[in-house]
C-alpha cells in the first residue's frame, strides 16, 4: 500500500468515526446494546375491556394516563383472538383489582363507587396501578393515584405522582421484571 492509499484509508476511518460520534445508527457493539436496551425498555401489557360495559372509555383513558407517565411498560388493547394480560369487567360492587402477577390480573369497574360520585377514569387508572404492582396508599391526597377513594369524590386526578411513576418504572425495569413475575404475592386490592 502506498502512502496515498494509506491516507485515503485513514480518511475513510475518520469519516466512520465521525458517524459513530454523531449518533448515526451503525452496527457497533455499543449501538446493538443500546438498541436491545430500548427494545427491552417498553414491556407491552395488553388489556381486554370488552366486558367493561359503560366504562370502556374510562379504561382507555386510564391506560393512556399510564402510557403518558411511564416508559418501561405500555398498556395496549388486546388484539382480537389474543389472550389479554388484564381483563377488565364492570359489576355493581366496589371497584377492585386482583393482580395474579406483575402486569397480569383482573379489574372490576364497580358501579358502587361510580354511583357515589367517584371519577371513572381515576378508578380505572388506580386499578391498573394495582396490576402494575402498586399497593394502596390510604389515606392520601388527590395528587396520589393510589390514595384511591380516600381522596374524596371531588378528586379526578388520573395520573400517578412522581413516586408512583418511579415505583412502576423500577418494577418493569430490564430483566428484573422476569424474576418478579415468577412468584409475586398480591392480594385483592380495592379502590
Ligand atoms: Zn386500590
From TrEMBL:
InterPro entries hit by this protein: MetalloPept_cat_dom_sf (IPR024079), Peptidase_M7 (IPR000013)
A GO-annotated cellular component: extracellular region
Main location: secreted
Cofactor dependence: Zn(2+)
GO molecular function, one term: zinc ion binding
Family indicated by similarity: Belongs to the peptidase M7 family.
Name the record gives this protein: Extracellular small neutral protease
Gene3D superfamilies in the record: Collagenase (Catalytic Domain)
Reaction(s) this enzyme catalyzes, per UniProt: Hydrolyzes proteins with a preference for Tyr or Phe in the P1' position. Has no action on amino-acid p-nitroanilides
Subcellular location: Secreted
E.C. numbers: 3.4.24.77
